[in-house]
Every structure is written in C-alpha cells, then in structure tokens.
C-alpha cells in the first residue's frame, strides 16, 4: 500500500509538468526559435542584391545605432501617437464602461454585444471605412471645417491616424474596465454615500482606485499594438505621419534590408518593455483583472 501511495504522489507531481509540455513546445517552436533568428539577423551584414540578398553574421551592433539614428523621428512619432491613442481611449471608454457596469440594467448584454460588434469586421475593412468617413467631402470634415477645427482636410493628418488607432483599439480598453467596475462591491458606494461623500469624492477615493487594474490592463492592450501599428498610418496618414511599424514593414518587404528591420524590431520591443515596466511600477498594482 505504501508503494502504491508513493507512486501516486510521484505521478501527481509529474502531471502538471506533462500538462504544460505542449504549451512549452509551442512557445519554443513559434517564439524562441524565431526570436533567436531575428536577433541573429539584427547583428548580420547584408550583401548581394535586392533580388538575391545574402546575410553574413558579424556581431554588427552598429545596426542598432544606425536604426535609432536614422529613424528617431518615426520612433518618437510612434510613441506620441500610441500615448495619445491610449489616453483618448481611456477618457472615452471609462464613462461607457461605468454605464454598462452600473446603469445599464437589462440592457447590459446588448451594450456589451455592441461593444464587440466591430470585431465581426476585419481590421483592414474597418480602417478603410474610416478613410471614407474622413473623406474631404464627407459630413465629418464639413462639420469640423464649419467649426474651424480643421482646414478642409482630415485625412493624411496625425489626428486621422490617432483617430483610427482609438477606434480600432477602444474595445480592448472598454472590456477590462468593465470587468474591474462590474465586480466592485456596490456596498462600498453605499457606504461612501452614508458618510456624506460627494459623487466626485466617491469616484476619486473608491471607484477609481478599485478600477486601476482595469485601467492598467486596458492601457497596455491599447498602447502595445498601437506602437507597432502600420495599417492606420498607411491608409489614414501620409509620409509625414509614418510610424516605426511602416518603416519595419518597408525594410522587410520592399527595401529588403533585413538587418535594419530586425534591429528596429528589437528596439521597438525594448521600448515597449521599458514603458510597460515603468507604467506598472508607477501604478503600483499587481492584479490586472
């Protein structure tokens, strides 16, 4: 009996490791190997022609310096656009998430369905739809032009790109905020009212702190994809609104300067990692949902 019990305990200890083996194998094949290949490419030197390029590994760290020097404007622009899109998404999404969580009643599921409805349409089609909405002869531009907010044109401007980023990523902000707000204990709000707290003070002292995990998760889900986005800048912007994602795409597929493109990709990953760690440390929250 003792031998059977010992064998059972050993199997129970091994079982969790066996269960994660498929996931580890998947990560090794589709993440670690490509990651290593990209890193090796970023330190290589190009030779040959555009049609028949060849790579020679040479520990060429100068690719990183060149990438940062040549494309610093696009890097700063990407940071600016991604930050602006994140802030605007948060300001627009928080009231909507609050209404869905606390005020929607029997219409909660309907509103949640409307929030995710745009995802039934592909990302590219949604972006092209905004190109039609922002057309020079469209209703939106005419209204904004009448109000003096634009000079007869919205397409090919930074605001068009930021608007596309906000629209395509707002759902990723709304849903984490809704989850954080929805699981909040309503008795806390009742207690704040019993203590004669104003609505603004209750929001500042109770609702906002308790919803910070949702703010953090939503901000990361918006900021990270926006940093590497190139579709919105390609279709809604111009050569003056090029982001780092556009540069990487063109270096890989058009110019075929693979070391430069790989170095830019690693720079982008490093900037995102530093930004995410700094943001999570500043907010001081560990629970994301």
Automatic annotation (TrEMBL):
Membrane topology classification: Multi-pass membrane protein
Keywords from the UniProt entry: Cell membrane, Membrane, Transmembrane, Transmembrane helix, Transport
GO biological process terms on file: transmembrane transport
Recorded GO CC terms: plasma membrane
Domain ABC transmembrane type-1: 75-279
CDD domains found in the cross-reference section: TM_PBP2
Compartment list: Cell membrane
Gene3D superfamilies hit by this protein: MetI-like (1.10.3720.10)
Protein name: ABC transporter permease
UniProt organism field: Mycolicibacterium brumae
């Amino acid at each position: 009996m003792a031998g059977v019990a010992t064998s059972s305990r050993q199997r129970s200890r091994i079982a969790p490791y066996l269960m994660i083996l498929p996931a580890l194998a998947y990560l090794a094949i589709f993440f670690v190997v490509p990651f290593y290949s990209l890193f090796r490419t970023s330190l290589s030197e190009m030779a040959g022609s555009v049609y028949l390029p060849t790579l020679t590994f040479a520990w060429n760290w100068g690719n990183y310096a060149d990438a940062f020097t040549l494309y610093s404007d696009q890097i700063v622009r990407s940071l600016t656009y991604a930050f602006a899109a994140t802030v605007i998404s948060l300001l627009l999404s928080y009231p909507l998430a609050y209404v869905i969580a606390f005020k929607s009643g029997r219409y909660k599921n309907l509103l949640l369905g409307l929030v995710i409805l745009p995802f039934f349409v592909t990302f590219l089609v949604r972006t092209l739809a905004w190109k039609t909405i922002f057309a020079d002869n469209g209703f939106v531009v005419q209204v904004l032009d009448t109000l003096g907010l634009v000079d007869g044109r919205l397409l090919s401007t930074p605001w068009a790109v930021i608007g596309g980023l906000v629209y395509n990523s707002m759902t990723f902000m709304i849903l984490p905020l809704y989850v954080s707000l929805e699981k909040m204990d309503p008795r806390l709000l009742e207690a704040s009212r019993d203590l004669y707290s104003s609505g603004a003070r209750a929001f500042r002292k109770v609702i906002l702190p308790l919803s910070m995990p949702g703010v953090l998760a939503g901000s990361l889900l918006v900021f990270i994809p926006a940093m590497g986005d190139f579709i919105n800048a390609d279709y809604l912007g111009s050569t003056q609104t090029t982001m780092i994602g556009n540069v990487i795409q063109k270096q890989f597929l058009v110019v075929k300067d693979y070391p430069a493109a790989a170095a830019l990709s690693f720079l982008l990953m490093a900037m995102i990692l530093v930004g995410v760690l700094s943001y999570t440390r500043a907010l001081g929250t560990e629970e994301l949902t």
